[in-house]
Amino acid sequence: MKKAILLLLFITLASTQIHAQKNILPGAYQTAEYFSLLKNKRVGLFTNQTAIIGNIHLIDTLIKEGIQIQKVFTPEHGLRGTADAGEKVSDEIDAKTGIKIVSLYGKKNAPDSTDLLDIDILLFDVQDVGTRFYTYINSLQYFMEAGMVNNKPLIVLDRPNPNGHYVDGPVLETPFASGVGKNPIPIVYGMTMGEYAQMLRGERWMKMNKSNGIDNTKWSLTIIPNKNYDHRSKYTLPVAPSPNLADMPAILWYPTTCLIEGTVMSEGRGTPHAFAYIGHPSITNQKFSFVPNPRVGAMSSKLYGQTCYGWDLSQTAPPENKIDLALIIEMYKSFPQKDNFFLAPKSLEQTAYFFNKLAGNASLMQQLKEGSSEAEIRNSWEPQLAAFKKIRKKYLLYKDFE
User: In this structure, what DSSP letter does residue 261 have?
Assistant: First the structure.
């Protein structure tokens, strides 16, 4: 009887979650809210493979509606999401539509005035995963800056944040700003792209050309919100946002295990479970093993062809609503040559260590070296996290998790 009740409860919870998932509709689905704004306009669309409405890409939807896409701008990994992390992507002409595709992850990271001469309005639709070091929020900022400087209205089609149900991690300190973190936000900031766009503008974090004679305070920014979503929602992405975040376990572990990119250990690139397979040939206290090798979206990385021993997180859920700091401590303690754990830059400057760029400070590395406890490290984060949460509240479009 007890087993039957538990089974019924499980089925009920599962069906409730599936029902809630089906009811969540990203901003792109709210076509009545933005089609009229695009009619008879030359549109500059920033997007990639994640911009879908059902099973149809936004580009095809707009073309079918008779909306003129003048150019498509693309982020890291390109329009189809297959380029390696950090790989420069070139401009091209889309074979299917004949539309010019301008890469904003190659020679430049933002449209210039020439790119926008024949554009009337900008449209942004890219799926984010809610971590500071995932580069799409930087792309959003560059795109907004270009729109503001050139006085081109921008519409952001919002999408749910799969890690939007909590806030955690150290807040970025200004000296550690880089391509994997530009602004003073924590590793997990608990905001959608639309909310973050409002924060970028409201906190004046965007660069502005004050000599262009344009009144930037009147620049038009429109957010098309998600439907039936709030910050307690657990959202499953229908399309992989990038080649090395192939499934939900990887996406949910990413806020924790991306820190391993700043170490000599493999973060699982070159396997089916990047950011869920973590290891190194010298680890001796773990039985799980894997061998990373070149694959689409991960043609080169650390330890290819070598047997790595370590952790398989692909079948395990991360701790609820927090970065698994205890796991990072465990990984550091398990590595036999502590002096070689962190990837060292030639300069040995603290701001040049990739681990510190990912963490947003030099403190976390030092705390790991000193053997600080999880509680001690977390306590050091709290003042800045509390201050950030107050700022964040001002820009939320959806009911919060607390």
Answer: G
Local structure of 17: helix, strand or coil: helix
For residues 189 and 196, is the Cβ–Cβ distance under 8 A?
A: yes
282, amino acid identity: S
CA distance 109 to 44: 15
How many other C-beta atoms can be found within 10 angstroms of the C-beta atom of residue 54?
9
Buried b (16+ CB within 10 A) or exposed e, 376-400: ebbeebeebeeebeeebeebbbbee
For residues 254 and 128, what is the distance between their CA atoms, to the nearest angstrom? 12
Q: 327-383 pLDDT, tens per residue?
A: 999 999 999 999 999 999 999 999 999 999 999 999 999 999 999 999 999 999 999
- Look at phi and psi of residue 196 and say left if phi exceeds 0, alpha if psi is from -120 to 50, else beta: alpha
Q: In this structure, which amino acid lies at residue 291?
A: V
DSSP state letters, 131-176: BTTSTHHHHHHHHHHHHHHTT--EEEE----TTTT--EEEEPPGGG
Q: Rounded to an integer, what distance in angstroms lies between the CA atom of residue 400 and that of residue 242?
A: 27
Q: How far is CA 74 from CA 22, 110, 113, 167, in A?
A: 28, 10, 17, 28
The Cα 89–Cα 190 span in angstroms is 29
Its pTM stands at: 0.91
Place of tokens 């093993």: 289
β-strand partners of 388: none
Alpha-carbon distance of 217 to 230, in angstroms, equals 29
Q: 361-371 burial, b if ≥16 CB within 10 A, otherwise e?
A: bbbbbebbeee
Per-position DSSP letters for 18-45, written without gaps between them: HHHHHH-B-GGG-HHHHHHHHTTSEEEE
Could you state, in order of their start, the residue ranges of all structural domains in the chain? 24-224, 248-371
Considering the domain delimited by 24-224, tell me its CATH architecture.
Answer: 3-Layer(aba) Sandwich (3.40)
Residue 81's pLDDT is 45
**Sign of CA pseudo-dihedral 313, 314, 318, 324:** positive
